[in-house]
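Q: Okay, next protein. This is N5-carboxyaminoimidazole ribonucleotide mutase from Candidatus Segetimicrobium genomatis. I've checked the sequence twice, so it should be correct. Can you predict the 3D structure?
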Amino acid sequence: MDTTSFRGPRPEVPGPVVGIVLGSDSDRPVMEEAARTLAEFGIAHELVVASAHRSPDLLDRYAHSVEARGIRVLIAAAGGAAHLAGALAARTVLPVIGVPLDATGLGGLDALLSTVQMPPGVPVATVSTGSWGARNAAILAVQMLAASDPDLRERLREFKANMARKIEDMAQGLSKPAVTARPEGPKQSPSSEEIASSLRSSQ
Ligand code: C2R
C-alpha cells in the first residue's frame, strides 16, 4: 500500500477493516502471521509501515485517515522503545491492539513495557511478544469485529471447537493403554538364615 496518500475507500472494492501498522519493514516477517490469521477468517486488512519516532507526520496522516476509510480495528507492532501503538491510540477512538516485538535482544521486554503501560484514558490492548502476539492480535481483532457480526462469531466458535478437538485427540493418544512388561512379584531379599546357610555350604 502507498503509505503517503490515504485518499479514501474505493467503493467497488470491499475495503480493509483491520489496519496492521509496523514500526519498520524489519517487523514484517513476524507480523505476516497476523495477516495470515486475518485471511483465515476472511477479514480484509491493510499492512502499512509508519513510525511514531521516525515519521511522525506520516503516522499522523494515517491515524487520521483510518475511520473514514472503514478501518474498525488497528494492530500496531513495534520493537524497542515501542511508542507506535500508544501514538496511534492517542489519535483515534478505534481500538488499538499492540504487539511488542523483540528488536534489541531484550526478548521484547522493552517493547512490552513501552506498549502496555499506557496512562489511564488511552488503552492499548497489549498481547504477547513476537509471533504468539501476532497471531493473538489478529484473533482479538476478529473477536472485536465479531461483537457486531453473528456470522463471524460462528466462525470463531468453529475455530475454538477445532482447537479443542486437537487437544482432545492429543489427550486420547496419551490415555491409550501403554504396553507394560509382565508384572513380576516383588524381589524378596534373602533372609539372614538363607545367607548363613549358603555360606556354610560354600566352605
Ligand atoms: P529498524 O529495523 O528499521 O532499525 O527498526 C521498529 O518497530 C523495529 O522493531 C528497529 C525497530 O524499531 C522499531 N520502531 C519503533 C517505532 N518506530 C520504529 N518502536 C515507534 O515509533 O515506536
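A: Here is a summary of the prediction. Residues 23-24, 26-27, 51-54, 78-84, 101, 103 surround C2R (CB under 6 Å). Strands lie at 18-22, 45-49, 73-79, 96-101, 125-126.
Q: Noted. On to the next one.
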